[in-house]
Specification:
CATH topology: Lipocalin
CATH class: Mainly Beta
Oligomer: single chain
Shape: elongated
Number of helices: 1
Strand order of the largest sheet: 1-2-3-5-6-7-8-11-12-15-16-17
Number of domains: 1
Helix content: under 10%
Number of strands: 17
Order of helices and strands: HEEEEEEEEEEEEEEEEE
Structural class: mainly beta
Radius of gyration: 20 Å
């Protein structure tokens, strides 16, 4: 009986901390986010703070005519999330506010340039709901739940509130809105969970690009795959991969011939510290880059959860 109780507590730790701790490094469209559609007891609140160090050739959009870019972006992220009941289905709402310091150098028209800037990255709001296989359950009801197949969907919106200087080529914000609808499926096989998701990011125009020019960008399409292993003590680890393509840009209607097609892979490790606190470590790097950003990133996230009877 004691061992059964211990396994139930460990499973609660995995579901109540792991499914939302991915929020803190959601800065770029090609993020790797395991357990986005895991079931979570309703009424639980999450506070998160994370730090990441990203290095490589990174730009807000591929139209920026830079060569040999070597940038370092150190980001601190604050986030809040809440699990909710959506007409009997489990859902989540979250808001992510990242702040960063960017330093680096690149060649522009053959001339060396340097850039150092601090400020907000465009914040993101996301709402997700599990349409099948994940009913809304209280914390007391949750130990009797056993996952089989979950099908979920989400919508993420970023707002143009980040640092932006129209006279500069490299900024932390994009001065435009973006909308990312996504659908995902999760299948549990004993201690292993397999996840697959696909989505598209749509962009409004930036009408203050390099002064008063108008930058337009076609949608970016993305698919993710995750192989997740859950240990009995509440620890879980994930191997992650993503492929994304599209995102061609134009300035004042003139195309830039910058179609993107890139692949990334990485890993995630989540460690529950106690009933309310968790730590996550993550890292990823580019496997193939045709056009756009090619970078490595590593980081850590702390999460505190409360409410819902915890």
């Amino acid at each position: 009986m004691w061992m059964k109780h211990k396994r139930c507590v460990a499973r609660l730790f995995r579901c109540t901390c792991a499914s939302l701790i991915v929020l803190a490094h959601s800065t770029f469209a090609e993020d790797l986010e395991p357990r986005s559609y895991a079931n979570t007891p309703v009424g639980i609140n999450f506070l998160l703070m994370g730090y990441s160090d990203l290095r490589g050739s990174v730009t807000a959009n591929p139209s920026v005519p830079l060569e040999d870019a070597k940038l370092d972006i150190k980001t601190v992220v604050f986030a809040f999330a809440r699990s909710v009941d959506v007409w009997g289905r489990s859902g989540k709402f979250d808001i992510v506010v990242p702040e960063a310091r960017l330093t680096g150098s690149a060649l522009f028209a053959g001339e060396p340039r340097e850039r150092e800037v601090s400020g907000l990255i465009d914040p993101r709001v996301r709402f997700s709901v599990n349409l099948y296989g994940a009913p809304a359950l209280s914390l007391a009801e949750f130990p009797s739940y056993h996952q089989d197949v979950i099908i979920g969907t989400s919508l993420a919106i970023t707002a143009p509130l980040g640092q932006y200087d129209s006279s500069r080529l490299v900024n932390l914000g994009n001065n435009r809105w973006s909308f990312k609808p996504e659908i995902g499926i999760s299948k549990r096989l004993g201690p292993v969970t397999l996840e697959l998701s696909g989505g598209a990011t749509f962009y409004t125009d930036n009408d203050r690009y390099l002064g008063d020019r108008t930058l337009s960008q076609r949608p970016m399409y993305q698919t993710q795959v995750h192989f997740i292993y859950a240990f009995d003590n509440g620890v879980w680890a994930s191997l992650d991969g993503t492929y994304f393509a599209g995102g061609s840009t134009s300035v004042d209607g003139l195309g830039n011939h910058d179609f993107q097609e890139n692949t990334r892979y990485g890993g995630t490790l989540t460690l529950p510290l106690n009933r309310r606190h968790s730590i996550k470590l993550f890292a990823s790097e580019g496997a193939h880059t045709r056009t756009g950003s090619d970078y490595d990133v590593a980081g850590i996230v702390w999460q505190y959860r409360y409410g819902g009877g915890i």
